[in-house]
Amino acid sequence: MPIPTLLRDTWAGALDLVFAPVCVGCREPVPTVDSRRIVCRLCWMKCRPLPVPRCARCWSPVDPHREPSPVCRTCDEWPAGVRAIRSAFAMGEVPRALVHALKYGGWSAAAEPMAARMAAMEWPRDTVDEARLVVPVPTSAARTRERGYNQAALLARGYAAKTGRVTREDVLARVRATATQTALHPGERRANVARAFAVPAGRAAELRGEHVILVDDVWTTGATALSCAEALVEAGTRAVSVATFARVVPELERS
Ligand SMILES: [Zn+2]
Ligand SMILES: [Zn+2]
Known about the structure:
With 255 residues, this protein is an alpha/beta fold. The protein has eleven helices and seven strands. The site of one zinc ion has 8 residues, from loops.
């Protein structure tokens, strides 16, 4: 005998209440209408892009009254090999919750929808045309063991799959342990990660002449990513573009 529709829907609704996955961002049950059921629509709606106008190269907020320039105060002293920096969202309540869940909460499934948002970012033409390899910011072996994965590598794999690129996790390594960056000032952060990364022996040939997209979860001062970019460029990488899920925007944090 067919089950009456109303009864079936009520049953499905009841099951949903009991077994519905909770949103990684707000920990409320995710309604069935949200296709992936990992992050709810409301949480995605609360995520904000980086403020405009932005520097064309690094996407830092720039003064709207100044002449457009290929670099800004933030990026004018960076190595020429650093081509472009992009972040899917400005750091805020929801991006912070997602990054935290992925990094410390063991919610590895969050990486896929986060990478999907990163894959929608726009790049300069040459990054789009040239970049073939996606490289995650390496974490220490101890931290990978502790978490079971490197969150940047999960984002890199998702990002590469969605943009038709190839992930390379063995071309960049952390060569010395660093203190956690959280409590450090910008100058201390740079010193803390200086020469912390290197291209392992025998891997440089694969990078020669390549334009690499380096992936990390968060851009705070850029110290870590720039240190990675330096190591890649030193090994012969022609250009490095950086993609992160979230970015700390000091102008927004202050307001
Ligand atoms: Zn939510
Ligand atoms: Zn800039």
